[in-house]
Structures are given as structure tokens and as C-alpha cells.
Batch of 2 targets.
Target 1
Amino acid sequence: MAVSSAPGKVYLFGEHAVVYGEPAVPCAIELRARVDVEQRTDSKLRVHAEDLSLDGFTVEYAGEPEGRPDVDVSESLLNAAMGYVDSAIEQVRDVTGEDDVGFDVTIESDIPLGAGLGSSAAVAVAAIDAGTRELGTTLEIDELAERAYRTEHEVQGGQASRADTFCSATGGAVRVEGDDCRSLEAPELPIVIGFDGGAGDTGELVAGVRDLREEYEFAADTVEAIGDIVRRGEDALAAGDIEELGRLMNFNHGLLSALGVSSRTLDSMVWAARDAGALGAKLTGAGGGGCIVGLDDTNETETALSYTLGCEDAFRAELAETGVERLE
Ligand code: MEV
């Protein structure tokens, strides 16, 4: 058996726009998905997943739809999660040339599913890493990130960036622009997360932005303006100017809202954070529901979020310095 874990992430800046070649800056955070992979004697794939949402649930999935029990999570989310595992295992088969190999895969995750914290990228990275090592191949980090990106690209209907998967594979703060992926120096950031208990469908949200961008020139301009914010944000990050980072995050949230990917609860959590004195707050990830990220070095934002209607959980997150971890 091989066991790997990989971290989730928050976007300081640039989600959605990164799909169109603008830069983005995600940061890995200390919430992890751990994946155990064991080779089977037949060619079946059996997946056992626990705690893919903060509420926690258990799924036994034997590769057939009827193998899935009733669980308290939407069928489309469950399909998406299992799609990432299927696709990650296809990458393992492809990279090792072992086309008919079967696996038992067990997933444990602290990262809520589809909530903007990079659960799918973390599962893809950890599953490909553990699966290839189970067959005696250890991938370089860049190759692992590239293979995990192909998983997301396939499951998101052919539109994905390398940002989530590169960040999860390497850890730390990263900058991604097209296929140029690199690590960044980052100061310690006082990250607070608010979670509304919901989730968004990344594929659908990405398609919504694509349609808007094709229909309206000013939507395309909005995507470019997000790119400008990211470039300013990089300078603020390099200078350790957390106040400027916060201001730029507020701008970024406004533009994401204009692109239609925020929601009532995400907006109210963002406003609760700002009212409580956060230096900045924005949705993180694909949007539609899920999480916001704020910067605040006091406890005020966390406390205010815990009293905000629609916020189910508020917590601090530490930057994850390491990406994939090879545990066994
Ligand atoms: C999702 O976490 C981030 C998006 O930019 C999609 C992607 O980059 O693949 C919305």
C-alpha cells in the first residue's frame, strides 16, 4: 500500500481569470486530503471515501452507480468527486503503462467538497502520487502536477488552469500563468475562512464565465482587470504589504461578483468580514457557494462570521509549506 496526502488552497487572487491565461496566486493551506492506494489482483477500482465534506459522510463506490449508497450530498457533487478519482487512476495507468491494473482507494479529507478550498486538486494529486508509487514509480513534482492538471481538465469539461493542482503538489504560495507555474515567497498571512456549508459546480461556473466573456466585451475586460489586480497583488505580497493585499482582494471579489460567480451567502460573509475589520475578503475558488477567505490578525472576523446568517463554520488556516507528502 502507498499513502500520500496533499493540501487544499485558497486563492488570494485570480480564480476564473487564470483559465483565460491571466496570472493567479493561490496559497496552500493546512487542510489535507489523504489517499491510500493498494493494488488489487483484478482490474476493478474500489473507492472508499470519508469526510469529503465538513459534515462527514461515507461512500462505498465500486465503480458502478448502483454501488453508491444514499448520502447527504448532491448526486452531481458525488459524481464529480468520483470522476476525479477515476480520472486520476487513468493517469496512474497511463504513466506506468499498466492498463489493466485495479486498486482499492481510500480517501480521508479535511477539505469540504466543491467549496473553493481545492478538494478535487488535493485528491487528484494525492491519488496519482500514491497510485504511481504503489506500482514502483515516483514522479517528479512537476510531472505529478501536470498529471493532476490533466485530471481536472478532463473532469471540468476541457477548461481548467494548472493553478489548483500545481499549488497542491508544491505547497506554499504559487503564481500560475498559462503553463508557467512557480513558487513565490510569501509573508505569514493571517488567513480566516468562512464556510457556508454549500458548494459550487466548478465545471458549470467556469462555463458560465466563458459564456459571459463571449457575449459581452466588458466581461472579457473584467477578466483582464482581474489579471491587473493579480500583478499588483504580487508586488504587495513581495513587499509584505498586507493592507494593500486586503484592498486588492476586495477589488477582486467585486469583479468576481460582476462575473456572476458569487452568491448571497458568500457576499454576506465577505461583508461580515469587512465590517469586523478584516483587511480584505473575497470568495475563493470557483464560487457559487462554499468559502470566503479574509485577512485579519485579530479574532474579530472569525467571531463575526460565526454569528453571520448563512455561515456554518469559521476558522483560521495556516499556510501549508509542503505540498504532497509521501506517508507510506
Ligand atoms: C477553481 O478552484 C479555480 C477556477 O479558476 C478553475 C480553474 O482554475 O481550473 C475557477
Target 2
Amino acid sequence: MRIVLILKLLLLKIISNEKISILSLIFILFSSVVFSGEVNIFSARHYDSDIELYKKFTLKTGIKVNVVSGKSNALEKRIIEEGTDSKADLYIVADAGTLGAFEAKGMLQSGLTSKIIKSAVPYNYRTSKWVGIAKRARIIYYAPERVTAEELLGLSYESLANPKWKGRLVIRKSNNIYNQSLVASLIKNNGKEKTADWAKGIVANMARTPKGNDRAQILAVAAGEADIAIANTYYLALMLSGKKGEEQKEAAKKVKPFFPNQEDRGTHMNISGVGLVKNSPNKENAIKLVEFLLSEEAQKHIVNNTFEYPMIEGVSPHPLIVSMGLDFKQDSKTEVVNFGKNQTDALEVMLAAGWK
Ligand code: FE
């Protein structure tokens, strides 16, 4: 393709009787070198900052990055339907459960096993087919004037099912993947039967029928509709940053984060991650991009724009995330591969409990 383009350009110049300067020749040849390879990303992460990051990769390597963005369901449908014709190399999403479920459909392949990847990503956050590129915690937010220090003592996901929280809890719907992964991790740790009972307790404690996104849960606590919410860590920082407007910034100041399960396995951690697609036409470039995403430069870019936790050691999260506290125990025992494995059971117990 490139060669044809260069010949056409040269021909045009000759036809137009234009003198071909050495400079223009160099320019034409150079521009053909710049995009000598490419990699195609199907991304369900909606961050403009990700696009800036891919540009940095292109500048570094000369590999062009093409991005198809959309909702995970639509992207997966397209990759499956296009089969061996699919141009997708990498699938990027914001939950380990999504990657696990796509892997279970046989749509990912092994290959993310280089030394760089393995030494960057702890074992519990990767498989040979997909790896985490950033971490997020799903935590508790509370209203300090309505929740006592005593009530917070030793608080865990499990203990949120206690009747003392009746009418005080908000959390989003059961169709939300973050919730499915949280419940999947509870199934892994406590078994399906116990988790089914737990889900009933949670539903009984809800202050309202689940609605809205994670930020809407934090807003409900700020507005006094509930005393505690469950939501991911980066949403509070996003609200505090002012990027979601003055009103949300003020609301965020009214709630406090709490990291549960400090007395046992630690707080539930999830990932943003990337999977190597089964029919990847540019596998080598795809692996290079994954390695780049795990570099110090890329990790700094990610955490400063998305308020996630870095996947690698030695990179500090955004100051707003630091101010929420870093000295909490993360659940590094429950491998995130379980979120996909237990996803069907998780949804089943939630729906059986009447979790809308
Ligand atoms: Fe999110």
C-alpha cells in the first residue's frame, strides 16, 4: 500500500513537471517509514487520555494505533461475528470479569507472557491471555455525621448484610459488572450459599431500589438519602477534581472513603485490563503495546488521568487518591480470574435475592 502511494506521488510530481527536490523525497520516504506497522485496539474504556497515551506509543515505536471504541457488548459481538476477518488485536476493558467472560468464549489467545509483562504485573492480576494495566478498589463511602466510629470498626463487605444497616445502604444494579465481580469474589471466598444469604441481607438493607452509576451512589450519601454507598475509588477523586462540576465536587467533600476487610483478606481490587484477541493480525505489535502500557511513563499517564492505582511498583497514584489513604490492605489473595469464573453464579444469587 505504502509503496503504491509513494509511486503515485512521484508520478504526480513528474507529470506536473515539478522538480523533485531531495527534501521532498526524504519526506515521502520518511512518512512511509513512520507507519510501517499498526495495532488495532478495541476499547471499552472511555478516556480521552488513553488516546493521548497511544500517541506516545506511536511516537516511540512508529507503530500506528487504530482505536475502535464502544460498549463491551457491542465490541465483543463485532469481534465474534467478524471471526478470522477481525482486525482486533487488543481488547481493553475496565473489569477483570469482562475479560474472563470473553476468554471463556474462546476469543482470547495466549501470548502476554513476556518477561516484561510478568515482572510488571503481580500473578493475581493476569493470565497468559489478559493482564491488568491499572487497579481500582471497590470500597465503602459513608456520611461521617450519620455513621459512628464504632459502626466502622472492622467493617467488611460481609458485615454490610447486618440488619443494623437496614434502609441505610445504596449500591447500583446487579447488571453492573463491578458488582458482579465483587459478588464473584465473595463467592470465591465464602461459597455460593453464604453469598446468596448475604445478597438477601444487602437487598433488605437498601435505602432505595438500585439506580444510577457509581457517582450517583456517592451523591445519594452526600444528599442524605443513605448513610453508606459502595463505589469504586476513582469516582470520588474524579468528583473532588472538579471535572464533574462544582456540585459534585461539593458533594464529594461530604462523604468519607472506608476500605473494608482490613482484618481479613483486604479490600476488593479489580483491574482495567487488556486481552490479546484470538485472531490478532498484529500480535507482535500488540505485545509491544501491552509492554508499553506497563512502563513507568505510561503508568504515570494512566493514574494521573483516570485516578486508578498503578499496576507496577514505584509509581505514585494521583494526589487525590493518595489523600484517600494508601496504607490499606488490598485483597491480593483472590485472583481476579475468579471474577469471570463466578460471574454467572454471582448474577444468579443477586437476582434470586431480588437485587434489581
Ligand atoms: Fe468505572
